[in-house]
Structures are given as C-alpha cells and as structure tokens.
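Final report, section 2: Outcomes. Of the targets proposed, rRNA adenine N(6)-methyltransferase is the one most frequently requested by collaborating groups, and we therefore present its record in full.
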Amino acid sequence: MSAVHRRKLFILLRSQNPILIAAIRWFGTLPEIPSTEDNYLHKAIYLHKSRGQHILTNPRVLDSIVKSAEIRPTDTVLEIGPGTGNLTVKLLESARSVIAVEIDPRMVEILHQRVEKLGLLDRLTVIKQDVMKTKLPDFDLCVSNIPYKISSPLISTLLYAPHHSFRSATLLLQKEFAKRLFSNPGDPSFSRLSINVSLVSTVTLIQDVSKHNFAPVPKVDSSVVCIRPHLKLPMVDLNEWYAFTLLCFGTKNKTLGAIFRQKKKVVNLLGNFRMSSAELGETGLFKEKIIGILKTSGFEERRPSKLSCDELLELLLLFNTEGIYFKCQS
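The predicted structure is given below as tokens.
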C-alpha cells in the first residue's frame, strides 16, 4: 500500500464503525456503501501527517478522555484541533458548550455538518484560526487531541499567558513528550519544560494510547495527561523565571559553575545588574560575584538536570537579592 493510500481516509461523520475503521487501516480506503438514511455518512478527506492530523477513532478511548476530564453540566470546554469532531460530539453531550479552534477549513465544514445533524450546533462555537495566533476566550476546561508540532508552545500559552484561569487541561499528547511533563529531577526526560510546567501546575498521567487507535496511524504512541494549574502561584516574576530556566537548561547536564562562567552569559547578566557599584562594571569582577554566590550557597557543582523547582527558586532569589536579574534576550 502506497504512502498516498495510507493517508487517504474516509471519515465517518455520524459514528465510528469498527469494521469500517479496520478496512480503512488495512486497505487505505472504504468500500462503497449505498447512500441511504440508514447508512453511515462518510466523506473522503486527505489528512496531512506533516500537520499532525491524526484522528482518534476508538470510541472507548474517546469516552475515557471525556470521563477523566470531569466535565460539569455548566462547563465551557475548549477543544484545540477538533478535526472531524469525534471528540467534539462527546464533549457536547456533557458540557454546556464547546469552543473549538480549527485552522483547516475542510475540518470546520465537516464539524459543522456533523454537529448540525445532531441538533447541537447552538452549543458549538468554532474559531477558524491558528490557535497560536488567537486570543482565547474564557473557558473552564481544555480537552483536546493536540497536534504534536504545537504541543510545547501551546502548553506554555495555556499556563503562562496572562489571561483567564481554568480548572484543568486534559490533553492527548505524543507519549515521549508527555513523559517530559511529569518527569522528576534526575530522570533522563527531565527538562526545562518539566520544571516550567511543575512551577505552575500538577500533571497526572491518565492513560497511554496505542498509535493503532488513530487514522492515519502515527509513528509513535500517545498518552493522556491532566494538567491542573495551581490555585496559588509562587512569588516570582514568571517572565524572569522563563529566562532563568532558559539559561540554566540550555546545557542542563553541566554544573552551574560551568554554565555561569561562560563569557556571553556573564555579559548579558551584567547588562541587567541593578546595583550601582563601579568596581563591578568589569566583566571579570562581575563573574567572580556570580561564582561567589554559587559557591557560598552550595550550587556551584550542582546541575540543573538534578535540581527541584524549589531549589531553582531558591537560587533565583539569591541572585535577585544581590541585584542580578534575568530576562530573555531579544
């Protein structure tokens, strides 16, 4: 079967029939079915793997995602990348309303038709835009099968953007990416993403999902995670924290002493130095001040990959106390 046939999928608009889905996966096509009211409606559509367009087709997994989201009848649910609406229609059964953000006009058309046939169109709002360029409206929950390519920036936007609060985000993500969200210091997958997410939220693994539950079949398995924002955020400038972790985790397995001895980093920090001390205007002297802070606090030989969120917050506070601040370089 050619790559083109593997990516050609006939999407069922009213139901997911396991026999027909099996035929799609095996043959890359769907047998002709007479067009009657009793038959499942379907439409040919070309799915782009490069855009992360993989449709979740297993009804049991879809039901499990909706159940784990703990949707209340009064909730407004945000869904990003609804595709043909397999998850959307199940969300509409539980929520007051659904806001779906979809950039592909073909998907929007199918979604509208499908929801209209169910008589639920008045509870669905579709935003036909790129979610990364959209100001999101208020919502209570986010429940989505996230396109792989935007997973990291999207989660950062949800957790760090200065807008509304929400109760939780139940997301279907690439499995290896999902592991980074709940990794602990010292784990191979522990990263800047792990530490930034743990600062402002708690992440729980709900379940793993085999790649064979999608059409077309992706290369890797997925996981469902639940992200719950903390009710109380730590007393830290989030923009500065973002810049601080960017510096530390650029080479996360080096010691902090080695990281902060790099001339370029010292020069950048010197530009942010807020204390008026003429003798520290020289890069060399300023570097000595930084290393002195690391030595006296016991952080010089520590590595970012093994530091907890509380330890990094402690180090940032030590720097701030000495007038050293961090900001992203433009």
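The first strand starts at residue 8 and ends at 12.
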